[in-house]
Design goal:
- Helix content is 35%, strand content 27%.
- By secondary structure, the chain is an alpha/beta fold.
- It has three domains: 153 residues, Rossmann fold; 157 residues, Dihydrodipicolinate Reductase, domain 2 (2-Layer Sandwich), CATH 3.30.360.10; 82 residues, ACT domain (Alpha-Beta Plaits).
- Strand 9 and strand 10 form a beta hairpin.
- Helix 13 runs antiparallel to helix 14.
- The protein is elongated and about 80 Å long.
- The model has no long low-confidence stretch (mean pLDDT 96).
- The protein binds L-homoserine (HSE).
- L-homoserine (HSE) binds next to helix 7.
């Protein structure tokens, strides 16, 4: 049997999908028992050579050509963005076609609406490539761990920022050169500020949390911070304390609430996530029956992402071929968990307080901490810098973020402070 798919968006990932399907066609046919073919491609530019074979594929510029083609059962949306892609996905589902997308921004902004259209039309929407590129994490959560209850997710889910942090720390590149290279390698978003400021990781976290906890996330209460303010000095001080700084997406589920945040985080150098470098992504899950499990692989780039898209296409081709009973609940938010505001989170913190050399400074600072219920676990005072400033590094015990922020706001008004205090979260991940 043959199943036809139509591809909208013939960019880097689209070309990767066409290449994979053509190079592995025979193997895929043997494994799935189905001949999967891309019969149409739609893009605004149908002239440019992408270096892949498109023989026999009808190329055009209007996505309605795919919607109106009765022989196409699956639409692959790789346009990106939240405007045209939104129309394409909804109209494809309404036209009774299954949809595969890699579009995390779209799912984050309009996921519930789009899934509503999918359920109404009894069609499937698959999105494996939207989170962590080539790592089959959506399948793990929804299939392999269908019977388990996930409590905690720690993820390195943005390849660009992991690449930049690795190059800055391991190879002493500057930020701009590392970003430029990540762009050249095709990891970064068209607008790389989405990578840098943590927005892309937040989109992925929202998707992961919805799927893992079957709950709607309240986007207003997700705390997001990117890598824009990471200074190499803090990477070095963290190292002295036994930590490495990674941009983490974190989701924790309590009995009736969720805590969702993206920020640079100090994690122990000995834990598995610490050794995940360059564009590699990693997800660490904690679930009731399995316990801790790790999933590591390339999170960006044409080929890794294409494997996830093709996995979804293959699943849907099987669906077209064998047609199981439609299950509307696979990704649905049937749990009512509240997303708590970041100010109520508790965490350990790293602080670099930059002062002048004066007697009594430590006493002044620790008094303010004490007044805000913040307990110190260690202090490290560094040598006087040539500009006469002294960095003092504090690690706190668990404290409420609201209290910590209030204390830092007061500390930063003191005349002994030379530079705004630097604050990072600390997560003592054990394995
Ligand atoms: N810009 C994204 C990243 C691409 O760097 O991870 C994959 O989603």
């Amino acid at each position: 049997m043959k199943v036809n798919a139509g591809l909208v968006g013939f960019g880097t990932i689209g070309a990767g999908v066409v290449r994979l399907l053509s190079e592995h066609a025979e193997m895929l046919k043997l494994r799935s028992g189905i001949e999967i073919s891309i019969s149409r491609i739609v893009d605004i530019d149908i002239e440019r050579d992408r270096g892949v074979k498109t023989d026999g594929i009808i190329m055009s510029k209007d996505y309605n050509d795919i919607l109106n083609d009765k022989d196409i059962d699956i639409v692959i949306e790789l346009v990106g963005g939240t405007t045209i892609a939104y129309d394409i996905v909804k109209k494809s589902l309404a036209a009774k076609k299954h949809v595969v997308t890699a579009n995390k921004a779209l799912l984050y902004a309009h996921g519930e609406d789009i899934f509503g259209v999918a359920v109404k039309n009894k069609r499937h929407l698959r999105f494996e490539a939207s989170v962590a590129g080539g790592i089959p994490i959506i399948k793990v959560i929804t299939e392999s761990l269908a019977g388990d209850r996930i409590r905690t997710i720690y993820g390195i889910v943005n390849g660009t920022t992991n690449f930049i942090l690795t190059k800055m720390y391991d190879e002493k590149w500057d930020f701009a050169s590392a970003l430029k290279k990540a762009q050249e390698l095709g990891f970064a978003e068209l607008d790389p500020s989405l990578d840098i400021n943590g927005g892309d990781a937040t989109h992925k976290l929202g998707i992961l949390a919805t799927v893992a906890f079957n709950a709607s996330v309240d986007r207003r209460n997700i705390s997001t911070n990117g890598i824009q303010n990471i200074d190499i000095r803090d990477m070095l001080y963290a190292n002295e304390l036994g930590y490495i700084i990674k941009l983490l997406a974190i989701a924790k589920q309590g009995n009736s609430h969720m805590e969702l945040r993206v920020h640079p985080t100090l994690i122990p150098k000995k834990c598995s996530l610490a050794s995940v470098a360059n564009e590699y992504n990693a997800i660490r899950l904690e679930s009731d029956f399995l316990g801790v499990s790790h999933y590591i692989g390339k999170g960006a780039g044409a080929n890794p992402t294409a494997t996830a898209v093709v996995s979804d296409i293959t699943d849907l081709a099987m669906e077209v071929r064998h047609g199981k009973e439609y299950n509307p609940n696979r990704y649905s938010p049937f749990n009512q968990y509240r997303t708590i505001r970041y100010t109520d989170f508790e965490s350990r913190f790293y602080l670099r307080i930059n002062t002048y050399e004066r007697p009594g400074i430590l006493a002044t600072i620790t008094k303010i901490f004490g007044e805000h219920n913040i307990s110190i676990s260690s202090v490290m005072q560094k040598e006087v810098h040539p500009d006469q400033s002294i960095p003092i590094i504090f690690l706190t015990h668990r404290a409420r973020e609201k209290d910590l922020r209030e204390a830092v706001a007061i500390i930063d008004t003191l005349d002994i402070i030379r530079e705004k205090t630097v604050v990072f979260h600390v997560e003592d991940i054990l394995s």
